[in-house]
Design goal:
Strand content: under 5%
Oligomer: single chain
Shape: elongated
Radius of gyration: 22 Å
Number of domains: 2
Structural class: mainly alpha
Distance between the termini: 29 Å
Largest sheet: none
Number of strands: 0
């Protein structure tokens, strides 16, 4: 495989080239999965050479051939770099949840309105449950990269929880107008982040 200043780009391009016989959506999905795996591996093991990470995935021709075999005959992958299937190495991402991408975004965004509309129970309980379930669905979705998932969870789940907790532990009296304004600002922030995630989603089988 020809090397350049960007070995990851070359690797993914080689996979796409070797898998040209695949349907376009399946080929796009395969390349996206590989790119996500590489991104995660580089983040978790910054000291590991990129070439070593790519070698662990296997030869692009083998990966493409495996995908073609699975698409046509349902066979399993051939041997990869460490004697394991090229596209089922221990660190390779498995196909994950097929929940519609709108579901986690709606659950995370509506966690605040639950509390705004029902400030007493069961509003807070529904709000927390909606936030937790939405975060889990977002993390297990195949529609976003690891970086976008992390950003989404931090802004849609962790940040609102920290704001609400700090507000509740603040002590002093809080007027209804101030509470409503704070919840409204938080809701606008959640809507903005959810819109960004929706627009940056990718197709997944």
């Amino acid at each position: 495989m020809k090397t350049s200043a960007d070995p990851v780009h070359d690797y993914l391009a080689a996979v796409e080239r070797e898998g040209s016989a695949l349907p376009a959506d399946r080929r796009q999905e395969l390349v996206a999965d590989l790119a996500e795996h590489i991104e995660i591996a580089r983040a978790e093991r910054p000291d590991t050479p990129v070439g070593e990470i790519l070698a662990e995935l296997g030869d692009p021709r083998t990966i493409a051939a495996t995908a073609l075999a699975e698409a046509g005959h349902g066979t399993t992958a051939g041997p990869g770099a460490n004697g394991t299937p090229a596209w089922s190495t221990p660190e390779a991402p498995a196909r994950r949840g097929k929940v519609h991408p709108l579901v986690p975004l709606v659950m995370l965004t509506l966690s605040v309105p639950f509390i705004m509309i029902f400030p007493e129970q069961p509003g807070p309980i529904f709000g927390v449950l909606s936030r937790v379930v939405g975060a889990v669905l977002l993390c297990t979705s195949a529609h976003w990269t690891a970086v976008r998932k992390t950003t989404g969870v931090l802004l849609l789940a962790v940040l609102p929880t920290a704001i609400i907790t700090s507000w509740n532990l603040g002590g002093g009296p809080i007027s209804d107008a101030a509470a409503f304004l704070a919840n409204l600002v938080t809701f606008v922030l959640l809507t903005g982040v959810a819109t960004w995630l929706w627009r940056s989603r990718r197709d997944a089988a």
